[in-house]
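W.,

You were right to be curious about this one. When I first looked at the sequence I had no strong expectations either way, so I just let the prediction run and decided to look at it fresh. Below is the sequence, 315 residues in total, followed by the output.
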Amino acid sequence: MNEYFRSVILQSTDASALLKKEMIQELWSGYGKILRIGLENGTANSVVIKHVQLPKYKNHPRGWNTDLGHQRKVKSYEVEATWYELYSKKSTARLPQCLAVERLDDELLIVLEDLNAVGYPIRKQSVTWEEIAQCLKWLAQFHASYLNHEPEGLWEVGTYWHLETRPQELAELNDQRLKEAASLINAKLNACKHKTFVHGDAKLANFCLGQESQVAGVDFQYVGGGCGMKDVAYFIGSCLNERDCERLESQILHTYFEYLQNAMVVRNEALEKEWRSLYRVAWADFHRFLKGWSPSHWKINSYSERVTNEVINHL
């Protein structure tokens, strides 16, 4: 890390020195690192930093090494920086406090509160219903915080699988019926009257849990405008098998909308009616991306196929 970024961390935390570093993870395709850094005499004992360094070569794990993919990632990090600078404090859903955002040449530094140190140390690969409900509560609070906001400086349409940013995956899609319906599915979601900010990558891995299933969310590279059902469908697909996705569908929607209505200043039955009708459309939208991106992916299952075919039939 360059000396300027080291000075930014020290200044933003009032620390006298930086101590040991712990690698949390490398960023997708070699675009940098997320680190936990210990602090001496700081306002906290540690911080988490996201240090983006654009690679001199492209190394996508699935072989999608293209200029379009590179530009999408570059924009995603700039979106995340803008998100923390301009929008994050408006969220009633728990997320890490941003201490600093700095840019230097082709590098970006985001200094964040260490969620592990403030009661959110648990990462889950499988979840109980109570934990799912708490994540749905987080999504509801997040969506309620940004209803009718314009996503200036963010993605105009949130999520990393948005059709207009994924022409290569669409070209690779072998399901001709879904391929022909893709633009109609996309248009139906984009035409929804009630819009908010979507997290855009609300998978289970991006939720940090506390001892009593309290939840905080991280990773805002794909936050942007859209229908909240995109986050809900994507989250559920990340943590339940196909049998439970189907068995619990009504319970999932009931739980989410109860939390959403409670999080809004005034109940909005029209919004709930519209978004409920788009849950399966959002599911089909992600299924379209997945089948083009990774046809053998474990999330491609009979439930997703049935839901998608039903959506196409009703377009």
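Here's what jumped out at me. The first strand starts at residue 17 and ends at 26. And, maybe more interesting for your project: The beta strands are 17-26, 32-40, 46-53, 98-104, 107-113, 196-198, 207-209, 215-217, 224-226.

Coffee later to discuss?

I.
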